[in-house]
Design brief:
The protein is an alpha/beta fold. The chain has helices spanning 3-10, 24-33, 40-51, 67-71, 82-85, 115-124, 145-164, 183-203, 228-242, 259-271, 284-294, 301-313; strands spanning 16-20, 60-65, 90-94, 99-101, 107-109, 127-136, 168-175, 212-213, 249-252, 278-282. The protein is globular and about 50 Å long.
C-alpha cells in the first residue's frame, strides 16, 4: 500500500484512529482511576480487550501502539498487533521519546536515538504509520517563536525519515488546552504554530500528501465552556488560512475534552465540508467508558468491549 493510500485509509471518517500508545507511566494514571495495578500482565490484558473487540474494523482504521505493546505476545505466542492486522486495521507506533521542560517553562521534544533504525524495524514487522508529539503551552509569553521553530524542526526531521523508510508520519503539534485563554488567543497561537510546522516540513522536502496532521481543535481553554459548533467554525477559519490543499489528512486529538464534547466537535467539523479529510485520533475520549466498565476484572471483559463499541458508534 502506498503512503498516500495509507493516509486515505487512516482519515476515512467516520472511522478513526485509536491512540493506544500510552507509556507505562501514563497508563498507570488510567489504571489508578479504576484501582487496577499497573503490571505488564494487566496492560497486555487491557490492550487485548481493545484489539479483540468484535467488529472493531467497522469503526477504527488504525491503532497507535507503544513499543511494549507492539512487541507483546499473548500466551499462545500470538502478537498483540496481529489481532489488529487480521482485521485489516493499520498498526502505528509512537516514535517520540517524550518531552523535556525548558528554562522558560515550555516543552521541547526529546531526541530519539537510532530513529531510522527503529523506523525500519517497525516497518518490517507490520507498522504502516508512526506518531510524534510536540507540546506547546499557552501563557502570556509562550509559546515563543524559538520554541515553536525548534519543535517544528524535530517534527519535520522525523516526518522526512518516516516517508523515506515506508511509514506515514502523524505530525502532532499539540496545544495544551488547560487554562482560561479565549478563542482569540487560541486562534493566533494555532495559526503561528501551523504556519511554522508546514514551513519546516516543506523546507526538508516532505511530501505533505504523505502525512497526517494531528492538531488540537481551535478551542478556548478547558476552564471555559465551549460550544462544539463554534469550536468547529473557529477551527475551519484558521485551517483555511494556513493548511495547504495538498495536505494528506487531519486526525484531531481530543486534548482533554470529555468524550461527548470531543465527539460533538468532530461531527460538527465534518459537517462543514472542509477540503481536507478530517477524522479523530483519540485516546482517553474513546477509552474512558471502557476502562470504567472493565475495572481489571476478567468477568467484565465482554461488557467492557460492548461499552467500547457504544462509544465508537457515537461517531456514526
Amino acid at each position: 500500500m502506498t503512503l498516500k493510500k495509507i493516509v486515505k485509509k487512516l482519515c476515512d471518517f467516520p472511522k478513526g484512529i485509536l491512540a493506544a500508545d500510552e507509556g507505562i507511566g501514563t497508563i498507570k494514571k488510567r489504571f489508578d482511576m479504576i484501582d487496577v495495578e499497573n503490571t505488564q500482565e494487566n496492560r497486555t490484558e487491557y490492550r487485548k480487550l481493545l484489539f479483540s473487540t468484535p467488529n472493531l474494523d467497522n469503526y477504527i482504521s488504525g491503532v497507535i501502539t507503544y513499543s511494549e505493546t507492539f512487541d507483546q505476545r499473548l500466551d499462545d505466542d500470538t502478537r498483540l498487533i496481529d489481532l489488529l492486522l487480521e482485521k485489516n486495521i493499520l498498526v502505528g507506533i509512537k516514535l517520540d521519546s517524550g518531552l523535556s521542560d525548558t528554562i522558560d517553562n515550555q516543552k521541547l521534544c526529546n531526541p530519539t536515538e537510532n530513529l531510522e533504525e527503529k523506523i525500519n524495524y517497525y516497518f518490517k514487522n507490520g507498522a504502516s504509520f508512526a506518531k510524534w508529539r510536540a507540546l506547546f503551552v499557552i501563557s502570556e509569553n509562550t509559546p515563543t517563536q524559538e520554541n515553536i521553530e525548534k519543535n517544528a524542526e524535530i517534527l519535520a526531521d522525523y516526518a522526512l525519515k518516516c516517508t523515506q523508510n515506508g511509514l506515514v508520519p502523524i505530525v502532532e503539534p499539540e496545544i495544551l488546552l488547560k487554562g482560561s485563554f479565549d478563542s482569540t488567543k487560541m486562534k493566533s497561537v494555532t495559526k503561528l504554530i501551523l504556519d511554522i510546522v508546514i514551513q519546516k516540513l516543506n523546507n526538508v522536502g516532505v511530501d505533505l500528501a504523505e502525512i497526517v496532521l494531528k492538531p488540537s481543535f481551535v478551542r478556548k481553554g478547558l476552564d471555559l465552556s465551549a460550544d462544539p459548533n463554534q469550536t468547529a467554525l473557529d477551527t475551519v477559519e484558521i485551517f483555511n488560512n494556513v493548511l495547504p490543499e495538498n495536505l494528506g489528512g487531519i486526525s484531531f486529538l481530543s486534548g482533554g475534552m470529555n468524550s461527548q464534547e470531543a465527539i460533538n466537535t468532530i461531527v460538527s467539523f465534518n459537517k462543514l465540508n472542509f477540503h481536507i479529510n478530517g477524522t479523530f485520533c483519540f485516546g482517553r475520549a474513546l477509552q474512558t467508558r471502557c476502562l470504567q466498565s472493565w475495572k481489571g476484572k476478567s468477568e467484565n471483559f465482554e461488557y467492557a468491549q460492548k461499552s467500547f463499541l457504544e462509544t465508537l458508534k457515537s461517531f456514526m
